[in-house]
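Batch 3, record 17
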Amino acid sequence: MNKPIENNKSFLKESFKEGISAHHKKYLGTDVPDNYFSKSKISILDNIKEEVKKEEKPKKQFVFWMQPQFKYIAAASLVFILSLTVWLQSSNKNNFDIPIKLEEFAFSDDILINSLLIEDSEIDAFADATLFNEVLVKAELFEQEIDNVILNSLILEDSLLDNYIDDEFLKTIIL
Amino acid sequence: MSKDAKLVKKLQDPKLKDIAFSELLDIYQERLYWHIRKIVITHENADDVLQNTFIRIYKSIQKFKGKSSLHTWMYRIAYNESIRFLEKNNKKSFDNIDEVSEANLEALFEDAYYDGDQIQRKLHKIISGFNEKQKRVFQMKYFDELSFRQISEVLQISESTLKSTYYSAVKIIEEKILL
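Prediction for the assembled complex:
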């Protein structure tokens, strides 16, 4: 068969007399595998079925809160919790700035509770008085008691020893 | 009501859609394949693009309003899918369109489903030397036998521009092929 390019007048006037694939093979030399179009049709229909199945399958939505209205609520809650945490931390930090005298709080729960309602100066005065009475006086008395105990023990031990020495000495001499 | 209009009506009816789509494939599959093949060159690529094209047609058929013919509408989808495919595959490897054309020509001659003689090779070389617009217009008019109005709808170019583009392409081929 004469190729249209050999006849420049008919070259561009041929139509699909033998079918479009034959036309392309004839003029461009391009071909397709045997039974390509019937196989391709089946393949396309199968792919479409798969696509339809994919679309029909409900998409996995994680949980209800992924919907916009819940997202806003979750975000607002998160912001509130974060700001509350920051505020609490900063307020605690302010409390720690006050110099703490441990002695002032070392007495009883009553003092601690009352201290919340009483002026600082009064607490200081009370703490000084209590410190003097409770600690210094008691310490002084305790020291005196210890001294007495030591002295007594010394005296007692000496007298016992004397007694013992005397007795033993006499026995030894006599015997 | 035309044959295509009846087919569209069936395609847009959920109960008849699958049967109508099989009918649509019988009518247009081969034509669209060749339209795609001339753009993406090799059979393997054309097969991929053809599958994507028909899946897109199936998904979008409900949106078809009949402003253009069904034939033209499908050609446009096939053309867009082919261009998308080329952009995706060629962007990374080539710097300009000439390099792409040269590489495509090599791919065509190496394709298992190409068996062209010397004159056919010469024709391919001449066509690959055209700019993109000239190439598409010539191929659609000459090989796919679309009317200028249809090509105008697919490529969104005025008919008068298409005519001048096509006839200048024909003149170039006639001159070069006889050299």
